[in-house]
Design goal:
By secondary structure, the chain is an alpha/beta fold. It has a seven-stranded parallel β-sheet, with helices on both faces. Strands 7-9-11 form a three-stranded mixed β-sheet. 45% of the residues are buried. The chain binds nicotinamide-adenine-dinucleotide and thymidine-5'-diphosphate. The site of nicotinamide-adenine-dinucleotide (NAD) has 31 residues, from helix 1, helix 4, strand 5 and strand 7. This is dTDP-glucose 4,6-dehydratase.
């Protein structure tokens, strides 16, 4: 079996669902269930014996060590993190705690478990760390896309904490021989995305008749990848990645934020027009820019394609259409995640 951390979050949840749709290999899903963790995402696995959910913090060394000893996974895939840049600006402490200290404790639990494995299981074991392109910093408009050799220049508390975790993972391989793999992925979007991030926030605000907040001039560029393509890349790296290597994952889809928002508005105009006949784009509102806002991210995913034969299946156009349709047809999930703590965040961030 495999052990996944953060599997009740956006990407981890999609990963667990996709994994069990394609394989009978069981998954132990370890998640603290912070505001971003949502068991509704995993509702279809409720009575599925292949899915074992444990509420736990990756930083709880004793409990994680116990779980590893009990279930003997052949791999650990670490999705667990605090993941939202704006939250890292208003409260960086949790980011250091989970992304840095938590990853350190997890590495130590895994190292203890792995050290005691028999030779064959030890050689086959993998620790796959899921990271972000934001560790590389911000690009000017004519800079080449990030390759795996780009220097780390993180600019936000979030990206700095992820960069620190990447360095720990690297060091645990170099020093202790732990068989690690690291993936650095661009911005994901798709089903079960918590609506604090741009794409789901815009879809839901548009439908609710609320403002569509654009930070600054909206010309910041992100490289978008449909979440299921990220999941297939992780499966491929787990299966065939070279131990100690890092792999960039991206969709070759660079888009300015404003274009992304206009595309979503157009799709909603076509699928669920406003009752007053006006365009959803009229709800676009320019708001104060994010402090230290990175201008451009772009991923060169060539290594993953050349060495492991992975390519994304979706273009931005096909992926965003699937995403908009998913939100339109999953109002129950939306209703559940947008109550309570979510409302407090929206008020604090946008008032
Ligand atoms: P998310 O915020 O939606 O989910 C994170 C999950 O981790 C939640 O279920 C949360 O409950 C859990 N968690 C948080 N702290 C924990 C702890 N201390 N112990 C156990 N569980 C904990 O994040 P996401 O968007 O799914 O991102 C998953 C991973 O992928 C993160 O490591 C993130 O840095 C990375 N990543 C995200 C993107 C993106 O666009 N979302 C892009 C590249 C990489
Ligand atoms: P986000 O989804 O938070 O991802 P990240 O900051 O990790 O790239 O934001 C994507 C882009 O959209 C980023 O440039 C910030 C911008 N943005 C807005 O313009 N308005 C918003 O309300 C949000 C949440 C993000």
């Amino acid at each position: 079996m495999i052990l996944v951390t953060g599997g009740a979050g956006f990407i981890g949840g999609n990963f667990v669902l996709d994994w069990l749709a394609q394989s009978d290999e069981p998954v132990i899903n370890v998640d603290k269930l912070t505001y971003a963790g949502n068991l509704d995402t995993l509702a279809s696995l409720k009575d599925d014996a292949r899915h074992i959910f444990v509420r736990a913090d990756i930083g709880d060394k004793a409990l994680i060590s116990e779980l590893l000893a009990k279930y003997q996974p052949r791999a650990v895939i670490n999705f667990a993190a605090e993941s939202h840049v704006d939250r890292s600006i208003s409260g960086p402490g949790e980011f250091i705690q989970t992304n840095v200290v938590g990853t350190f404790n997890l590495l130590e639990s895994v190292r203890g478990y792995w050290s005691d494995l028999a030779a064959e299981a030890k050689a086959a074991f993998r620790f796959l760390h899921v990271s972000t392109d934001e560790v590389y910093g911000s690009l000017a408009s004519d800079d080449p896309a990030f390759t795996e050799t780009k220097t780390y220049e993180p600019n936000s508390p979030y990206s700095a904490s992820k960069a620190a975790s990447d360095h720990l993972v690297r060091a645990w391989h170099h020093t202790y021989g732990l068989p690690v793999l690291t993936t650095n992925c661009s911005n994901n979007y798709g089903p079960y995305h918590f609506p604090e991030k741009l794409i789901p926030l815009v879809i839901l605000n548009a439908l609710a008749g609320k403002a569509l907040p654009i930070y600054g001039d909206g010309q910041q560029i992100r490289d978008w990848l449909y979440v299921k393509d990220h999941c297939s890349a992780i499966r491929r790296v787990l299966e065939a990645g070279v131990v100690g290597e890092t792999y960039n994952v991206g969709g070759w889809n660079e888009k300015p934020n404003l274009d992304v928002v206009h595309t979503i508005c157009q799709m909603l105009d076509d699928r669920q027009p406003r009752s007053d006949g006006k365009a959803y784009a009229e709800q676009i509102t320019y708001v104060t820019d994010r402090p230290g806002h990175d201008k451009r991210y772009a991923i060169d995913a060539g290594k993953l394609e050349r060495e492991l034969g992975w390519k994304p299946a979706e273009t931005f156009e096909t992926g965003i259409a699937k995403t908009v349709d998913w939100y339109l047809t999953h109002q129950d999930w939306v209703q559940n995640v947008t109550s309570g703590a979510y409302q407090n965040w929206i008020e604090q961030q946008y008032s």
